[in-house]
TrEMBL record:
Keywords in alphabetical order: Oxidoreductase
InterPro entries the UniProt entry points to: Sc_DH/Rdtase_CS (IPR020904), SDR_fam (IPR002347)
Species per Swiss-Prot/TrEMBL record: Pseudohoeflea coraliihabitans
Family the entry assigns: Belongs to the short-chain dehydrogenases/reductases (SDR) family.
One Pfam short name: adh_short_C2
Protein name per the record: SDR family oxidoreductase
Stored PANTHER family: DEHYDROGENASES, SHORT CHAIN, ESTRADIOL 17-BETA-DEHYDROGENASE 8-RELATED
Record keyword Oxidoreductase present: yes
Length: 247
């Protein structure tokens, strides 16, 4: 750990639990003031209290434009955003035959439109304050693997990678870098409570490095991308899955 993010304000969406919570912990350990945002308001508060220090909880549903506007009004009070981590997401397990329009729209609205809404507001605030910014979006290696039972999710995560590539080009002139991270299967709170929990043995067989993916494996990479060490990296998708897929 270091103080390499001292003086920075970071927002992590969906940080009440799982990978988002681990990212918030890691960015705080590196010295950032961390805004923990989640639709689960009580969980977000508990995560912020557990981190202590400069962590602040602000409840918000990333798919609700008004909630996102209110979230950034709060962040402005802390000096404005430097680092955005788009992590909030619904992780479904649903066979294609059960995917209807309502499911499709729900997943796209949270996992892709939510990423758009928060990134829209964050990059506006970064530029208004003349800040060199970082946008890091959590996609998924399911986009490369074509994982079953997640069609709408995989489509949304591919959209996040597309957005990352396009925004890097437009925002580079403002010293804002835009990157994505694609985790493999990670033993998060959400996964532990879902049928994905049964996939670890199969996934480990496909990994080059053996073991069970943990939230900290992703948090450490996000902290690097958020730091000055990653200033020359933009528009990239960093796959973090112990070598399961190559792209
Ligand atoms: N766990 C994995 O195996 C894995 C693999 C690849 C990618 N990912 C991605 O990593 C990220 C975190 O996944 P996780 O496994 O920790 O999930 P999780 O289900 O444990 O946590 C997700 C968090 O997001 C919050 N959230 C859901 N909808 C929201 C909304 N509309 N607005 C704000 N917050 C909302 C939830 O309340 C929860 O706290 C997600 O983007 C997920 O797609 C996870």
């Amino acid at each position: 750990m270091s103080e390499r993010l001292a003086g920075k304000v970071a927002l992590v969406t969906g940080a009440a639990q799982g990978i988002g919570k681990a990212i918030a912990e890691r960015l705080a350990a590196d010295g950032a003031t961390v805004i923990i945002s989640d639709v689960n308001t009580d969980g977000g508060k508990a995560a912020a209290e557990a981190i202590g220090g400069k962590a602040v909880a602000v409840g918000a549903d990333v798919s609700d434009p008004e909630a996102v506007t209110a979230l950034f009004e709060e962040i402005a009070k802390h000096g404005g955003i430097d680092i955005l981590v788009n992590n909030a997401s619904i992780v479904p397990f649903i066979a294609w035959d059960d995917v209807d329009l309502a499911h499709w729209q729900k997943i796209i609205s949270v996992n892709l439109t939510g990423t758009f809404l928060v990134t829209r507001a964050a990059t506006d605030q970064m530029r208004a304050n003349g800040k060199a910014g970082r946008v890091i979006s959590i996609s998924s290696n399911t986009f490369f693997a074509g994982t079953p039972n997640m069609a709408a999710y995989v489509a949304a995560k591919g959209g996040v990678i597309g957005l990352t590539r396009a925004l890097a080009t437009e925002l580079g002139q403002h010293n804002i870098t835009v990157n994505a991270v694609t985790p493999g299967l990670i033993e998060s709170d959400g996964v532990k409570d879902s049928p994905h929990n049964n996939a670890f043995e199969f996934v480990e067989m496909l990994q080059a490095v053996k073991g069970k993916g943990q939230p900290a494996h992703i948090a450490d990479v996000v902290a690097f991308l958020a730091s000055d060490d990653a200033r020359w990296i933009t528009g990239q998708t960093l796959n973090v899955d112990a070598g399961m897929v190559r792209h």
